[in-house]
Amino acid sequence: MADLLDEPTLTFTVAHAASAGDQDPPEHPRPLDEPTRARALLAAQPVVEGHTEPPRVLDPDDRPPVRAPEAGAQLWSLRVGADEGALGTLRRIDAVRALVAAFPEELRLAYTTSEMAHTRNCGRVAALLGPVSWEAVGGSVAALRAYHALGARAVGLTRFDRFAREAVREMNRLGLTVDLAGADPDTVRHTLAVGRAPVLLTRAEPDTLPDDVLRLLGENDGVCMVPVTPDAAATADSLDRLRTLAGPGATGISHATEPAGGYVPLFAELLRRAWPAQDLVALAHGNATRVLRETEFHARTSRLRAA
Fold it and tell me: Looking at residues 189-217, what average pLDDT do you find?
């Protein structure tokens, strides 16, 4: 086989064909342009989005919120105002469940990474419940357990105190991913020091986070999920900084600010910047899925140790 691929043999074959009056040798196919390569990659590796806003009330004529065509899974935000609390969170859970039930050919609830993969293989978009607002926890680990039982898989943590320390450990035990979107740098530092499972920032601007926090995030295998704006170059600049400081394993996508535009322009820009394919796959879904899977694994091992 090596002889067949040897360059002198190939040169002889072409020269011989030309001397024999055969047709001109076929030209090498032109390399695909970046948008075409980006579309092919995203078709095979759909995006896990970190933030989707559900409708407050489901009307009969409602449709699922417009989403990027390349989305394969979405974390549906259960964040509510400080005055809504647990009741507002329950209403949001109910709204998401009703929406998924109304459009079973498009959406499917998923509670594990295995269910996410199965949903994608069935041609549907996986809907995951979470994150829950920190205010809706009410300073109670019982509330964390109740939200987990209702299907929530992430809780936002925005400040660090004595209860937060206890809550992080309980979330790790249950299998609730800690979401640090909106947390100040000190809260991120303290949480990373206490937690055993990696964290997500489901909606974050890397440019607002200090260099040392991004490095810590990478060291702790966390993922910062970045909103994708219509300015692909600006979003790519943010992702370049995140990748440089935290590593390619810390990158993720929050959502598209203009979903109809999709993610092809961003991925084409990153290809122009020589991002390797494995880093683009990690950005699209690999990193976020890993955090969710490792959170599940840590919870299972915690239960086994307690048994």
Answer: 96
Is the pLDDT at 114 greater than 60? The verdict is yes
pLDDT at 6 over 50: no
Q: In whole angstroms, how far apart are CA 113 and each of 12, 50, 110, 174?
A: 53, 14, 8, 15
Q: Which two tokens stand for residue 107?
A: 């959406």
Mean pLDDT across 40-67: 84
Burial class (CB in 10 A: 0-12, 13-18, 19+), 22: exposed
CA separation (Å) from 139 to 15, 109, 258, 282?
79, 28, 36, 35
User: How far, in Å, CA of 137 to CA of 80, rounded?
Assistant: 11
**Helices marked H in the chain — which ranges?**
7-19, 34-44, 85-102, 113-121, 141-149, 162-174, 185-194, 211-219, 232-246, 264-272, 277-281, 287-306
Model-level pTM?
0.88
Task: For residue 6, give Cα distances in angstroms to 12, 13, 14, 240, 276.
Answer: 10, 11, 13, 39, 28
Return the number of other C-beta atoms located less than 10 Å from residue 208's C-beta.
9
**Residues 13-28, mean pLDDT to the nearest whole number:** 50
Q: Which residue type is seen at 54?
A: P
Residue 243, CA atoms < 13 Å, CB-side half-sphere: 21
